[in-house]
Amino acid sequence: MSRARDISALARLAALERDRRLQVLRDAGAARADTLAALAELNAAQAEAQEAARRDGSPVLQGCTEHFQDWIRARKAALNPKLARETAIWLEARAAAATAQGRRDVLDRLAADQRAERLRQRTARRQE
Q: According to the lineage, what is the superkingdom (predicted)?
């Protein structure tokens, strides 16, 4: 009976650990998604500025567009390493969450096997 209780307790702990790992994964994914969205907005603004400068043809607008393009390149240069770090964190969190889920699944199966064995033993005693 002690082994069954131990397995059950471990299964509960594994569930808590899995929940914690999933929250870390969600947080990492949200941070990564925010950075991806910021890069997408910069790409859209860059394309819009290029199109406006092409249509207008004004030297003043061309100059402003060049400065804006420089700013966008600098901003992307700052965001790309951030995205790389966030992606690495997200990949590690995903692997840790998968491991935690696997542990929980195994312990749940062991606990279910223990319950089934206890039930078989009770049934066998009643049939004697």
A: Bacteria
